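User: Hello! I'm new to structural biology and keep hearing that structure can be predicted from sequence alone. Could you demonstrate with DUF4386 domain-containing protein? Please show me the input and the output so I can see what each looks like.

Assistant: Of course. The first part below is the input, the amino acid sequence of DUF4386 domain-containing protein. The second part is the output, the predicted structure written as tokens.
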Amino acid sequence: MPCSPPLPSRPLQASAGLLYLVIILCGVWSEGALRGGLIFPDQAEQTARAIGAALPWWRLGLAADLAMILADVAIGAVFLRLFAARFALLAPMAFGFRLAQAAVIAAALMPLALVPALLDRPEALMQAVALHRLGYDIALVFFGVNCLIMAVMLRWLMGPVLPLALVGSGLVYLAGSLTALIAPRLATTLQPAYLLPLVAETALCLWFILQALRPARAATRST
């Protein structure tokens, strides 16, 4: 089978790396650093006060979420273009699962957008936050399947280490989300495992960026 031309893949790899960087930075900041410091489980009034005192940051977090979703759809299209010629079935499947994830996360943002109007109703505010969390858990089921498919396709581009880490990430997402949906009391016990997806996806982001920056001759040989 003839090799694909190296030049078109280099911009695609650079795009994948940069889009992954946007996804990681926006996702970690909005979901982890920002909302994690404003939401206090089982303390509705304290949560309402904290959000009310930081409304501009709350809205900026929603904007970061939107940027993350847009980058997620874009990187899905990049991966579809990168892998479709070699993986005629798996590439569209991965794209479909990634789109499903993005759609569910976008829908789950709507309750968070209502939060500023619920500051005087702390219990309703906490229900909106819980609905968003539920949507995120459902979205990560789709993303977990996407990770498993991507691991198979990425094995063509790189050694086994990062694809295996991505398999682990997919299993963590699936286990964490299914536990949150089926046995929510056990969900907190799996929180430390989410460090694996963060490390794996950061490493994958850096791999794409560095691969795109390699000298053209080296990239040609690797292709």
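User: So the tokens describe the shape?

Assistant: Right, they're a compact way of writing down the 3D structure. Reading them back into a model, for example: The chain has a mean pLDDT of 88.
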